[in-house]
Amino acid sequence: MESNGSRVDALASEIAAAERVVLFTGAGVSVPSGIPPFRGESTDDDDAPDPVWEIYDPADFHRRRFDADPAGFWTDRLELRETMYGDGVEPNAAHEALATLEERGYLDTLVTQNVDGLHGAAGSASVIQLHGTSARAACDSCGATQPADPVWERVRDGERPPTCDCGGVLKPDVVLFGEGLPDDAFDRAQVAARRCDVFLAIGSSLTVRPAAILPEIAAEAGATLAVINLESTTCSERADYDLRADVTEALPTLVEAVETADDA
C-alpha cells in the first residue's frame, strides 16, 4: 500500500501540471480554528467541541422560523453565533496553505460551504461562497446587504429583529434550512468543476447536497478527484486519491510538494 507521503507527491505532480485546479472545502477546514463542526457525534474529549446540530435544533434556524418568528430567530441565532465564533476566530494553517496555492498560480477556483470568511481572511481571492457569508446581513425585502457586525451589536442591544432602512427585516446573508443555494454561485461552481483537471474535496463529508454533487461532476468530466479528510466520505471509493489526514498538516505539505514538483 502506498504511504500518504507518496500519494501526496503524486497528487502534487498532477496539480503542478494541471491547467485548472478547483478546491472544495467544508467545515473540517475551519474546525482547527476553533469553530465546532455541524455534524457528527459528541465525544468525551473535553477539548473537542460538540457538533452544532447536537446542541441546537436545526428547525430553529429554518426559513419557516425566520418568517414566523423573526425576533425569536435572531435571539437564537445570536446564541448560535457566539457558540460558533466566541470572541473571534482566525485562519489556520490549512486556510493559509490554500491561499498560498492561489497566490503562486496553482489554483483556479476555491469553492466553500463555509460561511465564516476565513478563506478571505487568509488571503484567498477566487472564492465561491456556496452558502453565503456570516460577514454580511441582507434585507429580506429590498435585498440590500450591509456589514454584519453592527447588526449583531443592534441585536445584542435588544433590536430583534433588526430592520433595514427600508423597513424590511434583516437576515444573516447565509443560506438557511429550507432555502436553495444562490443560483449564480452554484452555477459558477458547477462550471468550474466541469472544466477542471484536478478537483480536491477537503474537510467535507460530502453529504450535504446539492453541493456534494460537485466532485461527482468533476470526476464524470474526467478530472482527477482527490479527497483529504479525517474520515471516509461518500466520494472516497471513487476518488483517485483518498487521504485520511489532518488538513492543517496535509495541506502545507501538499503546497511544498507542488512547488517541488513544479521545479523538477
Written description of the protein model:
Helix 1 crosses helix 10 (247-263) and helix 5 (93-103) packs parallel to helix 10 (247-263). The model has no long low-confidence stretch (mean pLDDT 92). 38% of the residues are buried. Strands 3-2-1-7-8-9 form a six-stranded parallel β-sheet, sandwiched between helices. Strands 5-4-6 form a three-stranded antiparallel β-sheet. It has ten helices and nine strands. The two termini are 25 Å apart. It is an alpha/beta fold.
Give the radius of gyration: 19 Å
Shape: elongated
Strand content: 15-25%
Low-confidence stretches: none
Gap between N and C termini: 25 Å
Question: Helices and strands, in N-to-C order?
Answer: HEHHHHEHEEEHEHEHEEH
Count of runs of 4 or more consecutive helical residues: 10
Binned, the helix content reads 25-40%
Instruction: Give the overall average pLDDT.
Output: 92
What is the SS-derived class? alpha/beta
- Strand order, biggest sheet? 3-2-1-7-8-9
Give the total of beta strands: 9
Specify the biggest β-sheet.
6 strands, parallel
Features:
264 residues; alpha/beta; 3-stranded antiparallel beta sheet; 10 helices; 9 strands
Quick gist of this model?
This protein is α/β, with parallel strands linked by helices and 264 residues long. It contains ten helices and nine strands.
